[in-house]
């Protein structure tokens, strides 16, 4: 058996219009004839699909942290109740009408607190339902079970039953209920009819937020102002995307949603501005055309866009089945167009 070994080619000069020079994609295996040259393009970090966050099973057992905060909350509630009781009793001792006024105010405050607690509980239950629904859709897509697909798609449609703007999409989905459709195809129908309009609205919100951040941080005089703008816009964007996809988070729900978004960014590496991202942002001649402050604004806009994309992955009630997840280039590409069009 004869084995042929090929010695490494020595460095040599070549012309780009040489017919022996070919351009290959990064993901293609290349082989050339002797003397040929292959130019391999670097992968575009903005075209790479974001990694999917692993779905963790929801913990049902009582944890030490939950026990601590529950006991602390109960103790605080008892302390507030005891304080309110003493205030009402003291006012009754002074004057009956003052006592009745204090009792009415205490009852009004108690009803308002109960309404707030119920609202927060419903918001947390709704977010938990969306998490479970997304996990069920992902499992159904893997198994291609038609019966399970019919069930989960019905739950997704029910989630938006009270929103008038989804009436046409829900009617289009209902027209296929009696059809014999595979499980994956039924999921694709729901994604195309119901999710795509919501995805477009979410991407528009991300593009607007990233543009605002890039403009404000490009002209702000202090780094502290930059940090405050990015933080406030990111919080508003997370809440906005949660509202778009039906989460309607309250205060506690927003904190839970922000925690999940941070976990998604940690998994996908979205908050890390590496060399590849910096080269992409300052490549293509931008380094010679824009100022340092404008470059910082572009990078802050990119980070805001990454937060928005992570919020989509967390708030969307079903994973991307047929469509590709939106990329940074799709939601923040106007930042590069705007900066490249304005040389310094």
Automatic annotation (TrEMBL):
InterPro entries: DUF697, UPF0283
Residue intervals passing through the bilayer: 66-85, 97-117
Primary site of residence: membrane
Bilayer topology annotation: Multi-pass membrane protein
Superkingdom of the organism of origin: Bacteria
Pfam family, one: DUF697
Keyword annotations: Cell inner membrane, Cell membrane, Membrane, Transmembrane, Transmembrane helix
Location relative to the cell: Cell inner membrane
GO cellular component, one term: plasma membrane
PANTHER family assigned to the protein according to its UniProt record, in alphabetical order: UPF0283 MEMBRANE PROTEIN YCJF
Sequence similarity: Belongs to the UPF0283 family.
Identification of the protein by name: TIGR01620 family protein
Organism field: Hansschlegelia quercus
Biological classification of the source: Bacteria, Pseudomonadati, Pseudomonadota, Alphaproteobacteria, Hyphomicrobiales
